[in-house]
Amino acid sequence: MSDISDLNDLTLESLTTRDGAKWSLAEPGVIPAWVADMDFPVAPAVREALARRIHGDLGYPAWLDQLGDGPLAEVFAARMEQRHGWRADPAHVRSFTDINQALQVVLHVATRPGDAVALHVPTYPPFLETLAEMGRPPLPIPMEPVGDSWGFDADALAARLAEGRCRVLLLVNPQNPTGRSFTREELTVLAELAERHDLLVVSDEIHADLTHAPSAHVPFATLLPERTVTLTSATKAFNLGGIRCSVAHFGPPALRAAMAAQPRHMYGAAHVFGVDATVAAWTRGDGWLEEVRAVLARNRSLVAGGLPEGVRYRIPDATYLAWLDFTDLALGEDPAEFLKREARVMLSQGPPFGPGGEGFARLNFATSGPVLSEILDRITRAVKSRS
Questions:
Q1: What is d(CA 366, CA 364) in angstroms, rounded to the nearest whole number?
Q2: pLDDT digit string (tens) for 306-325?
Q3: Predicted pLDDT of residue 251
Q4: Number of helices (H) and strands (E), helices first, in the chain?
Q5: pTM for the whole thing?
Q6: What DSSP character marks residue 339?
């Protein structure tokens, strides 16, 4: 377990030597706060597990022919029960390389081109890309400001679903990019609509472990188990984006049968490094995770206090992502361009997140306090220089 002071010791000098996409793709002198990778060092338990594997057996794993990849399914089920009170069935778990692959497999097996997919927007851009590539038209559910948070119009959604074209509800909870953690009441409304309109629910819950108190994550499968496919991974909460390992829990019996009928090796499987890292994170990494969560909880408040006048920000219930509204500053559809050019900070562009992304940018605040303060200072100076 690291010390929380270590997480705050990250400097620009040390971070710019990294060769991952987040830092290596930024221009010299630009601070990246875009892609959803944290700057924090990997949990010691994960490093130790990978070191043991490298110096141990790199042959075929004993679980090679098991759909749940041996320990992965059991550890996933145990974690869901421990943290969320959901008794997932390990026999219904399959591994994939990442959430995007899992989603594409589910849509390929369970739907046809032309079937609409309902999802809250703005949303994770690769999901919109998947729907376009696969010919599954999106049915947008606009996220709307509600006080100091975000919500959606359930009556408007019900009216759209009554048109009868929709086959899937793609739920991202906690929601990306707004950071909204949907309440049990909101999820119950969605469950009732899914039941009424015979929808398959695909629930991406990859940010669940990053839910900030007093919010609490509710697995959708606890509400509608036989309609829900749950997708998750240790990669977001434990900073393992390159490890390429995710899990899917298939609740619908018909979908499990359809998956069982697929050629055995068509979709591949997780590798030993991904399985070992995930098992270590989920069984021995929570001490590290709690220290990271404390830093993130502080940082989301630092963002609120460090933004210039005219930038609107609703503190997220979960994640390490700040969805920033620059529309009052008239910076155009893509304020990230202005910020990269004038502030020398690299945020995620808003428009690729779909409807509702114009005039917004997403800031990743999973870094040290000093680096985050420099990011916010640069944004403030650039905005003030316009007046």
A1: 6
A2: 999 999 999 999 999 999 99
A3: 98
A4: 14, 14
A5: 0.96
A6: I
